[in-house]
Amino acid sequence: MPKIEIQSFFYDLIHCKNKILSVFEKWDKKYDEDERGALVAGIRDCPDAELITLLVNIQKLATGYEQIKELVDKAEQEQVDEAFVEGDPDDEDF
After folding, report:
1. Residue scoring higher pLDDT (84 or 26)
2. Above 70 in pLDDT, residue 9?
3. Would you give the end-to-end CA distance of the chain in angstroms?
4. What is the structure's pLDDT at 49?
5. Do 37 and 27 meet the contact criterion of CB atoms below 8 Å apart?
6. Which of 61, 64, 49 lies closest to 16 in space, CA to CA?
7. How far is CA 57 from CA 2, 3, 26, 28, 68, in A?
8. How far apart are CA 59 and CA 65, in angstroms?
9. At residue 53, what are phi and psi to the nearest 5 degrees?
10. Positive/negative CA dihedral, 81, 84, 87, 92
11. Which of 3, 11, 84, 92 is 20 to 30 A distant from 18 in Cα terms?
């Protein structure tokens, strides 16, 4: 497994995730019996400012995921490069 350093934005992602989940939990409680379903009812009845905040947090989470993916890809490539450089001396005969 490649190792990556903890980045400061990781904590922002945790904060965004918690905010998103708290909104969904609130909707689950408030719209539990709604025939539209909690998510649809919550989105439809949500004030614009709160919905925008939710969408911004979802966008930040998606961007953070992409940043983490880039870090992991870079770490994996470094492992491959190291393995290639350190290669088996017997392989040099070919």
Report:
1. 26
2. yes
3. 29
4. 98
5. no
6. 61
7. 28, 27, 16, 19, 16
8. 10
9. -60, -45
10. negative
11. 3
* Encoded amino acid at 14, one letter: I
Q: For residue 84, what pLDDT is reported?
A: 86
The pair of structure tokens assigned to 31 is: 């719209």
Q: Give the amino acid at 46.
A: C
Contact call for residues 9 and 68 (beta carbons, < 8 A): no
**Do the Cβ atoms of 3 and 75 come closer than 8 Å?**
yes
| Per-residue pLDDT tens digits for 20-51 | 999 999 999 999 999 999 999 999 999 999 99
As a whole number of angstroms, the distance between CA 28 and CA 48 comes to 19
CA nearest 13: which of 69, 79, 77? 69
Phi then psi for residue 78, to 5 deg, are -65, -40
Amino acid making up residue 31: Y
Structure tokens at 72: 């992991």
